[in-house]
């Protein structure tokens, strides 16, 4: 087992760089923190390296055969941590290969949702509702950023994560006979008025401005969720959860 105690060690500097989107996209790797997330990543066989703080024991149930384990000081562990109180366990993981074509029947499209907590929650809900993939449009929080990963609680390992121009993906979904349903406060029908088939995609948008009008113009139908109280709107992750579960249960 390798032991590193200097913050100036090149490997430590590389791990720290993975906090930046540029380095993650350059290396196709990302850093996970915490026992639960590392264990889920080990099950999916995407872990390339485990980093553990000295004095922290790896669970006996973990199969780490063939995975390098490096022990580091508490100071290095704190430097790598994105949480206030770290558990002292990290893993460098490979990103999943992004498919270039539609291979599933249920998709969530996210247009410019900037809050990482909302983004991670939607990934987690999409996984729970049995969706095949989440597609991240321009301006949306990076699915491999530490805060999104923490909010997703390992669900990023179970659903496809696709990025790119949503105009292109909507076109691909239409070609694959997967209708896209947008979300809008105005000029839409109540979501219960739509009868989803076994294939569908749900499009949600920015916390303040909603889905871009150009994207809404390309959908099969735009949907709204009734507001019975005095609130002007629902949180985007809550709205997405309502629609995903409703469509999944009625399809």
UniProtKB/TrEMBL annotation:
Gene Ontology molecular function: RNA binding; RNA methyltransferase activity
Protein name (Swiss-Prot/TrEMBL): tRNA/rRNA methyltransferase SpoU
Keywords: Methyltransferase, Transferase
Family: Belongs to the class IV-like SAM-binding methyltransferase superfamily. RNA methyltransferase TrmH family.
Organism listed in the record: Heyndrickxia coagulans (Weizmannia coagulans)
CDD domains to which the protein is assigned, alphabetical: SpoU-like_rRNA-MTase
RNA 2-O ribose methyltransferase substrate binding domain span: 31-99
An individual GO BP term: RNA processing
SUPFAM superfamilies for this protein: alpha/beta knot, L30e-like
GO cellular component, one term: cytoplasm
